[in-house]
Amino acid sequence: MRFRGLMMGRVLVGIDLGGTNVRIGIITPTGRILKKEEYALDPSQGGLKIVEELVSNLKNILRKRIGRSNQLLGIGIGIAGAIDMKRGRMVLSPNIPGLNGFGIREFIKKRISSPLAIENDANAFALGEGWVGAAKGSNDYCGITLGTGVGGGIVINGEILHGSRGMASEVGHMVIDPEGPLCGCGGKGCLEVYASATGIRRMALEAIEKGEGGEILKRAGGKVEEVTSEKVFEAARSGDKAAQKIFNEMGRFLGLGLVNVIHLFDPEKIVIGGKASRAWDFFIKATLGVVMERAIEGSREKVTIVRAKCGDDAGILGAAYVSLKSLGH
Amino acid sequence: MRFRGLMMGRVLVGIDLGGTNVRIGIITPTGRILKKEEYALDPSQGGLKIVEELVSNLKNILRKRIGRSNQLLGIGIGIAGAIDMKRGRMVLSPNIPGLNGFGIREFIKKRISSPLAIENDANAFALGEGWVGAAKGSNDYCGITLGTGVGGGIVINGEILHGSRGMASEVGHMVIDPEGPLCGCGGKGCLEVYASATGIRRMALEAIEKGEGGEILKRAGGKVEEVTSEKVFEAARSGDKAAQKIFNEMGRFLGLGLVNVIHLFDPEKIVIGGKASRAWDFFIKATLGVVMERAIEGSREKVTIVRAKCGDDAGILGAAYVSLKSLGH
Q: Which helix or strand (DSSP H or E) is residue B79 part of?
């Protein structure tokens, strides 16, 4: 009976609605992932189509995976952009333009009978890491994702920082060098132009232009357009100095960003994840060096800078956690 | 009777324990200042002497100004540096080195029978402006003081941000230009080296060295060591282009700092005060220009950037407010 009781437990659904794929997890209230599914998303579709597809997939999963054997407590969705938290509406949806202005919560709630919570994807990452990952047990920490862009989620006294309009913790658009390279946001020298996959690619192309990126170019089959942060990582692992120099630069600029985060938030911990963090060993030394050199005494020795633990699951975990929290747990 | 009732009201004492002078105010629970006193402080004295002097002055004021005609609700102290909020102990006291490590709350509480609250001075500034000043009615705002250094106080959902060790909102030590001038903190290119009285003086000395600061030097009686931010302000007001250029530069760098603050906190409002903000008309245009150019769409149009209203009283008001809040009001 005990075994059966466990099987028939209460579960949460965590959704990571990314720019090119959607991950859905069935997760226990203690943060254990029972099932995961994933499907590709075409971000150029209209918002209605995207959300209809999500609802249809979600209904399938709920029927197949939950059915009568589990009790669904709630659903959480993590999504890039600024969210009007009161209305559950996307204010700004950079990765899926079709969702700009879309009232996603109401749309889904009309079709699926379950409590529904929405959160920014970087916030979901931070909350996932805080729930069962590298920031577990901490009430004051920052999560930073180094992906295509740089995202941030900041937890203060156990609560995520949303700001007055849901646009806080845009860590990726801190100005690091006022005269630095152009950023997608229209600014110059934002953290994102250095410490993201896009930034690594940019630095690699610059190195190639200067005649220093031979090994990187070789790994991209000699085609500049095939240079990716992944190729730079491969080159660095093979011992290529130019690629290692790029990660060193990335680490240095990331360190400057962390100095600002430390000075403004005084966190116990900073958790760094995202696909570009796979090159950890090639950039973290430079990052920690800058922090020790530049952050204020009393903070720099005490803050812990660690690698994320939940990998690609942080998003679904965080989304499930948001759902759990919204139920008052 | 009503008149007498008002006169015999309950009052708070707010103390602004600065690096060179101490201001003490008797303040109503609605934020009206009834009395103010001020005395000079020698910051090179030992901590014991400084706090004994404070206690002695405080006792005098309480006897003279409060006596039997008012009921003292509580005392609040604003002081520069990092404070261990739980123990009421100075962790770091940059302006009054003698107070480093001093358990100021316990010392005073043993000598004066009253509830006592301590808060960082920039936080007190922000809370004072939020209570009865330029941020009244706002729950999410940042207060920035441009003084000898640059201080910050950040209010999130109506609560001041302390961080995990009471060292948050060090706005003045955000890195604005990684290769900028040396800062007192040991870093380079911190906001403080541009947007403080010290920064203005530095830029003036550079202008003089380049042969551009003739009018500024004249106003300092031809003596480089007498150049102050105040002299630069005078020169700017008289129409001196070199002085105006300095404030324009200051404003531009301040704008870069505000962009970071906006991206990280998404405040409704930013309130700027401190003695160097007196040159408002000479720097604010450049500041707002940078914010409109660099801050993310959706935030930049909505954040209000305003001048502080409480002048030199923000510190005592905020200290009194902290005391009021600590009583559960």
A: strand B71-79
